[in-house]
Amino acid sequence: MTKSSNPDRKRQGKLFLRIFLPIVLILIVSISALSWHSIHSLTSSKRQDLLNRNQTIAKQVAFAVQSAFYTLNWDFIETLLDSEIQSEEVLWLTILNPDHEVYIGRGQDERVNCLKKSSDHKRQCEKPGLSLLDQTTFLITEPIAIGNETWMISLGGSLESISRQKKDIIVYNLRVGLIIVLLSCLTCLFVSRRITRPIVALADYAEDIAHGKFGVSIPVSSADEIGKLTDSFNRMSSSLLEFSSQNKTYSRNLEKMVEARTRDLQLTTNQLTSILETSTQGFWQGDNEAITEKINPRLAEIFGREEKDIVGHSIMEFLDDENQAILTEERTQRDLGKQGSYEISVSKNDGSLVPCLVNAIPLYDAQSKKIGSIAMVSDISWLKEAETGLRKARDEAETASQAKSSFLANMSHEIRTPMNSIIGRTRLALDNKLDRETRSHLEMISSSADNLLALISDILDFSKIEAGELRIDNKPFDLHETVETCLKTIHVLLEDTDKGVELRCTIAPDVPQAAIGDALRLRQILLNLLSNSVKFTEQGYIELFVDSSTLPDGSLLLQCLVQDTGIGIGIDEQENIFGKFIQESGSITTIFGGTGLGLAICRELCHLMGGDIELAGSSSLGSTFMFTLCLQPCDVRELPASSRKGSSEKGPVPPQSVLLVDDNEPNMILARMVLEKNDHRISEAHDGLQALNLLAKQNYDVVLMDVQMPVMDGLTCTRIIRDAECGNQVEGVVEDLAMQLASRLSGGHVPIVAMTANAMSGDKEKCLAAGMDAYLSKPFVPEAVESVFHKLATGHLRS
C-alpha cells in the first residue's frame, strides 16, 4: 500500500490535533487552576498571618503603654514605639488621646497621608479592631483605659510584602507550567508518532476494505494494543476475503434460485390466470369503496355485461335497494377483517335479477392495511329453480299425504260403521240363550270381527306414525295393574286356542307401583309381543320378565323381556324383523295371517317413549324380545282414585235421558238396543238440525253425537249449542230456532259425547275443540258407554 508522504503527514497532523490537542488544553487548564488555587491559598494564609501578628503587637503595645502611663515612664513608651516601628510591615504606631489626636508616636506623616486617601478615615480611626484603608494598607486600633478616659493605640501597616510574594509565586508557577506543557507536547508528539501512524494505516486499510479490496495485510510493528489491533485487522481481512468468495458463490446460486422462482411464479400466475379465465365461477376484485378493479370473463357473463361496463364501476350500480343493504352490511364485516358467504341478486341490462352466491375475503397490502376485497361469485339460478321444484314436490307430497290421511279417515269411517253393527249385534246375540252350533258361528264372527278391527287399528297407527302425528300421552298410571291387565287378556286368548301353553310372569321387587308414561302404548306393545308368542307357540311356555333401573337424570328405565318356546325366527329374517310389512316368511302369512306391521309399530312406539326394542335371541326353540321405555317416577298417591288398589268398583248408573244423533240406521238400532238394555230413555235424530229442534223443546241428560252426518254435521251442531249456552248470537239456523235454543240452553250445559267411526290422529282433538265433552270411537262396546255415563254421574265427563 503506497501513499505519498505529504498527505500522510497532513493526516497524521490532523489525527494528532484531534487526539492530543484536547489533552494539552486540559493540562494547561488544570495547571492554571492549580496555580491559581495555590497562589490564592498561600497569599490568603500569609496575609492572615500578617494581620494576626500586627493585632498581637497592637494589644501588647496597648498593655505596655497602659502600665507606663501609671508609672509615667515616658522613656519606656518612646523606646517601645521606636522598637515596633522598625518592623517592615508597620508604617506608623501612635497613641491617641480621648479626642483622637496624636499624643505621641512614630510615623505620623505616613498616618496622615494614608488617612487622607481613605474616604471614611475618621470612622475607621474611631473604630476599634482591624480595618483596611485600601488594597495595600491596614489599620489596627486598640483601646487603652487611662483612668476614666479611653485612649487608643493606632497601628498602620503595609501589605506590599504580600503582593511581592504573590507576584513571585505567579512567575514561578508560569515557568513550571510552561515547562510541563512543553514536556507534555513532546511526550504527545512522541506517542502520536507511535499511535497515529498505525491508526492512519489502519484507516487507509479500512477504506480499501470498504471498496472491496481484501487480502492485503499490514506489518505488525509492535506487540502492544496497536499491534493486536493490526493483527485483528489482518485476520478480518482474510475472513472477509473468504466470505467474499463464499458470497459470490451464494450470490450466483441465489440468482439462479431467483430466476427459477421467477419462472415458477410466472408459471403459477399463468395457471391462475388460466383458471380465472376458464373458471365456472366469477372472480371480482375491488377497493375499499367497492369500485371494481379486476374481473374474469365468467363474472361478466354472470352480470350479463361487457367487462368495460363493470371495471371501474361500483358494484352498487348493479344492485337494487334490498341487495345494496345486504352488500353494505357485508362490507362492514370485511372492514372488521372477517370473511363471509352470502347471497345477493345482480341486475342485468334487461332488468332481470341473477341470484348469486358470494364468498368474499378482505385483501391486505404488505403493511397489513386493508386495500379492498376479493370474491368468488357463483350463479345459483339453477339452485333456486331446484329449490322451487323441491318446494313444489314437498307441497305435492304434503297434499298427497293429506289425501292419504283423508282417504284412511274415510275408509276407517266406512269400515268401522258396519263393523260397529257386526260386533255390537254379535255381542248382543251372544248374551242370549243359543244352541251350540249357533253360538259357535257367532263366536267365530266375533273373533273374525275383532281380528279385522285389530288390522284396521294397525294400519291407522302406522299411518299416524308415518305422518308424525302419533302423540304420547304421559300420565300417572298403575304399572303393575297395566301388566296384569295384559296378562289377563293373553290368558283368555290362550284358553280360547286350547294349546295348553303356560303363561308366566316375573316382576322384579324394585319395579315401582306407579309411573308417569303412556299406559295405553305400553299395553299395546306388551299385547303385540305376547299375542305374537301365542300365535307362534304350540307348546311349552310364554314368559314375561319386568325389571327397572334409575337413570342418572332420575328417570325410570323400564325393561321388559318376552320369551317363548315357539317356532323361532330364521337367521335370514332377523335383520329385517322390525321392518314394515315384514313377516318371517311367506308361508307364515299363509298359516298365521297378519299385516306385518306389529313389530314395526312397537319399535316406533319404543322410540317415541325414549327406549328401544331388539330381538335378544331366536332359535328353533323359541324367540326372546326385549324392549325398554323411559318413564318418570311418581308416587302412588298421584294415581287417579279409580286406578288405586282397593278402590271401590263402579256402582250402577241411573237411567239417563239420551238424545242419540246418527244418520246410520243399523248403528242407531244397535245403540238403542245397548242403551235400552240398561233402562236409558232414548230420543233419536238423524242429523244435527233435527237434534237442535229437539233440544229447543226439551232437556236431555246427555247427547251422543255422530260427527259425519248430512244436512248438519256433529261439530257444527255442537258449536251452535255452545253459542246458545253462552248467550252468543246463534248463526246457521233460522231465527225462531235460534231464539228457542237461546231461551232454553242459556246459562246451562248440555253434555255432548262424540260417537264416531273417525279414528285418525286429531279427530278427538277436533271434537273436544268444538265443545264436546268426551269421545267414543266406533265400534264401541257397552262398557265404554257405561264408563262415559258413570263419569257423567260423578262429574268427571270431560277427559
Strand percentage, roughly?
15-25%
Give the N-to-C terminal Cα separation.
Answer: 121 Å
DSSP, total strands: 22
Low-confidence stretches: 581-595
Shape summary:
elongated
Provide a count of the helices: 21
Q: Tell me the radius of gyration.
A: 66 Å
Helix content: 40-55%
Mean pLDDT: 78
User: Class by helix and strand content?
Assistant: alpha+beta
Largest sheet: 7 strands, mixed
Protein described:
It is a single chain. The protein has 799 residues and is an alpha+beta fold. It contains 21 helices and 22 strands. Strands 11, 12, 13, 14, 15, 16 and 17 form a 7-stranded mixed β-sheet that branches. Strand 6 (282-286) and strand 7 form a beta hairpin. Helix 1 packs antiparallel against helix 2 and helix 18 (714-726) packs across helix 19. The longest helix has 67 residues, at 5-71. The radius of gyration is 66 Å and the shape is elongated. Residues 581-595 have low confidence and may be disordered.
